[in-house]
Design brief:
The chain has about 150 residues and is α+β, with helices and mostly antiparallel strands. It has three helices and four strands, in the order E-H-E-E-H-E-H. The protein has a four-stranded antiparallel β-sheet, with helices on both faces. It is globular.
Amino acid sequence: MKGYDYSRNGAYFITFCVKDRHEILWNHTPVGARIARPLLSDAGTIIQTAIENISKVYLDINIDKYVIMPNHVHMIVVIQENNGRAMRAPTISRIINQMKGYVTKQLGYSIWQKLFYDRVIRDEAEYQRIWQYIDDNPARWDEDEYNPKK
């Protein structure tokens, strides 16, 4: 949102994609297979490590839920600024860009589409709907809007 302070306390739904929607984050799965828990590729495993380290790098940031899909990632990022710290919480943009940079450095090349999608989560009901969407996403890959075979 134009003019919004993306370092404010709150919950954010973030989606970022692999360049050209290449499906490189999961190991190959048979067409039509229902997937409860996908096997991540090497790139997917690096992304998982990067996501799980965000809260260690940024103490005011929690990743409440995430899923790594074949060509994109969904996350719920929560900023809870600790009033005891002198430093302000980083922006969502900084968090995502640094995480993408880490993955790029580990791989030795960039896999990322330039931008990312964000949504400020406004209430508990919306938070629960997004949580469920993230939870169900792997099993619904055949219908996913990011699936190039759809």
